[in-house]
């Protein structure tokens, strides 16, 4: 048995509801699952209740979208089991507002080429309020302009360098975000260090106070895992694992079913022990 500690639902940019994802984890006989929707923590409460009904441990979590402004790369931070989640409310709200404004601008640009309205895009948004480029694509799919979420049309519209309708938005600074997340009493883990080149930001994040690194991820190569293990051993950091599950909204060509990449039961136990330690001093 093992734990998938990185999963997304319809509360952010996943294709499946929390109920479906928790139920799937139960059928796969996983030890535990963590729901880590982008910049939205409250979905974990609902999933936790579902987990109690299904008899599977559900860990509340969030994936915070940030950036390393010095190096110009994105950095994503996972935060688990927050005792005071309200401490990061302003951080998440700022990120959500910045993203929403950019997506609505992108929607207006797309509407010049396709008969897609802002109302059609917002129709796919859940109660979390998360609005992303995939909601524009979902509206285009419903209108029959593409059969793929992240195919050629997506790249032509939203590629960061060549997309005709791409509008950038400002992420929170990663080091400052770590400082805020430490106030929540949660366990902070650098997500998928090999993605976005964020492994280059590792030293700064360690100094800022992260507690762990995601070792097992579909895009972490064996070479990346060596670097991650060395850093974890040197700085006494936790190692975790997760599929980064998005259902059929996955952005990679490779299929990533739930449970593809997991933390061991020992790693899960270490994370929960760290959480208990943090709660005892907060």
């Amino acid at each position: 048995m093992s734990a998938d500690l990185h999963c997304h639902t319809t509360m952010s940019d996943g294709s499946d509801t929390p109920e479906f994802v928790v139920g799937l984890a139960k059928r796969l006989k996983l030890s535990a699952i963590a729901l880590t929707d982008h910049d939205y923590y409250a979905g974990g409460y609902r999933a936790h209740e579902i987990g109690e009904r299904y008899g599977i441990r559900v860990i509340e979590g969030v994936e915070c979208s940030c950036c390393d402004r010095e190096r110009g790369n994105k950095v994503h931070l996972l935060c688990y089991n927050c005792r005071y989640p309200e401490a990061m409310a302003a951080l998440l709200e700022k990120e959500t507002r910045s993203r929403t404004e950019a997506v609505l601008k992108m929607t207006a640009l797309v509407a010049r080429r396709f008969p897609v309205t802002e109302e059609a895009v917002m129709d796919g948004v859940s109660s979390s309020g998360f609005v992303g480029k995939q909601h524009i694509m979902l509206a285009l799919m419903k209108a029959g302009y593409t059969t793929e979420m992240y195919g050629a049309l997506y790249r032509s519209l939203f590629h960061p360098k060549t997309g005709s309708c791409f509008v950038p938005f400002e992420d929170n600074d990663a080091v400052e975000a770590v400082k805020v997340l430490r106030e929540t009493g949660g366990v902070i883990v650098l997500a998928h260090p090999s993605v976005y080149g964020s492994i280059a930001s590792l030293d700064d994040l360690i100094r800022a106070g992260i507690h762990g690194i995601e070792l097992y991820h579909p895009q972490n190569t064996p070479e990346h895992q060596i670097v991650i293990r060395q850093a974890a051993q040197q700085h006494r950091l936790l190692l975790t694992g997760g599929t980064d599950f998005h259902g059929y909204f996955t952005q990679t060509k490779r299929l990533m079913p739930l449970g593809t990449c997991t933390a061991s039961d020992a790693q899960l136990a270490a994370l929960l022990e760290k959480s208990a330690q943090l709660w005892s001093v907060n």
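Residues 98-158 form a domain with the DNA polymerase; domain 1 fold (CATH 1.10.150). Residues 75 and 227 are 17 Å apart (CA to CA).
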